[in-house]
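Ticket opened by: R.M.
Priority: normal
Category: complex prediction / small molecule

The reporter submitted a protein together with zinc ion and asked that the result be attached to this ticket for the collaborator who will pick it up next week. Submitted input follows.
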Amino acid sequence: MICQACGIEAPTKYVSFHQNVGALVVRFSKSTEGQLCKSCIHKHFWSMTGTTFVLGWWGTISFVITPFFLLNNTIRYITCLGMARVPTGAHAPVLTNEAVERIEPHAQFLFDRLDGGDPLERVAAEVAEMSGVTPGEVVLYVHEAVQGESRE
Ligand SMILES: [Zn+2]
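Result attached by the on-call engineer:
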């Protein structure tokens, strides 16, 4: 619900993309993974897959692994095509004092649910509805609370 690449609040999906650049003897690979929004998935897929497609083949190991990288990236990408796009005007959530005040009355419920093992995503959506803030703001609230606790 918060994109781990660009930070905006939008529908996200877990992806992992791999890039390989073969340079005969050595090879350079990198990967991107996390919960990303559709725009970032698109951007990372095309840049990493394009680079691999052009530069991935040079080297024995590279020649063997490059098809797998391309296949993995393409399959991941295809499963993301049905995702909701990033809403216009989507922005990174900011935890304002007003949002904190709204969430506070539901904090007990929120942390009880999380302690009970409910996924943050679902609990955040429920609490957001109850308190009239966005799910992203609830997620930030939880992060702040957890960080505050570990500092004490
Ligand atoms: Zn993003």
